[in-house]
Fold this sequence. Notes:
By secondary structure, this protein is an alpha+beta fold. The protein is 51% helix and 17% strand. It contains 10 helices and 10 strands. A 4-stranded mixed beta sheet has the order 1-4-5-8, covered by helices on one side. A hairpin with a 2-residue loop joins strand 2 (139-143) and strand 3 (146-157). Helix 3 (65-76) crosses helix 6. It is globular and about 80 Å long.
Amino acid sequence: MEDLTDEERELAAMVRDFADSVVAPQSYEADRTHTLSMEVVRQMGDLGLFGLPFPEQYGGQGGDYMALGIAIEALGRVDQSIAITLEAGVSLGAMPVFRFGTEDQKRELLPDLLAGRALAGFGLTEPEAGSDAGATRTTARLENDEWVIEGSKQFITNSGTPITRFVTITAVTGNEGGRKEISTIIVPNGTPGFTVEAPYDKVGWNASDTHPLTFDGARVPAGNLLGERGSGFRNFLSILDEGRIAIAALSTGAAEGCLEAAVDYAKSRTIFGSALSTRQNAQFTLARMRARVHTARLAWHHAARLRDEGRPFAEPAAIAKLVAGEAAMDNARDATQIFGGNGFMNEFPVARHYRDSKILEIGEGTTEVQLLVIARALGLAG
Length: 382
């Protein structure tokens, strides 16, 4: 982390200490019981983590996306579920309101979100619309100055916690010249006709809150439109570009957590009369794991700096997510191998990283989508 400022180093050390002392001790039980600790969320709010990249006028910390990534990486080392709760709470919950909301919407909704007193979700994915978000089928029609919403969403993070305030959804609000008009609309939790369905039984991220959503004639005021009508598709693409940096930071943290655990285990594990760490094959495995962490961190730092400087960052964000997601998955596999049979036991963090890390190659744009973004940046149309 040689490129960090003194202030950024202090933030990294603070969140790392919080992760080790508060988050890690509860991670196994939270994973086993599929429970998101609201006490941990509250403490993250008290530390100001949900407000890191937002201006002080709305209750934020006046930081930037680099600061957010630093915090997410530190949490991802020990508990990906907690890290994704922060990432989604900021990138998908609060950021759309900050980027596209009216001043009244910002002043009403942001203070509680940035303080961690409330969470919000972003309803984009549908059964037939994931990577191809333009295939959105959820509809919203204006009727008597209200949006009437019909449809469903799936895999929506932070949508059903005790403090979830609302979800922002994409919906087809018109059709012009055979082209769908897609807008974003704020739907408060508890709205009649809006149902947060039972949580998923997932492979990993078990302590993260994730639900399918159903809209059956749900009505919200016309003023709940977020951003200009018809701008939803363009707006969500920009949100995903930023989110990919944050997911890359989370992935880097996961890769580092696997490396740290594997190094410690290799030093303490005796095999055929000597420490596993003295075996060249183990040393080479650990060296490759270290190289992946280093490369992933460089990639997301580069993308975050570009974003914070107001420079184009879509391709670097895609590269960062691609590289870091693969680093997390590869390091999780190698760490599990270093641990042997213990690596298959959920009480060990590497086992949880092994289950958790696969989604890092899928969520907020699959590996294939990142490759497509990079290919297009090379001028390879198709």
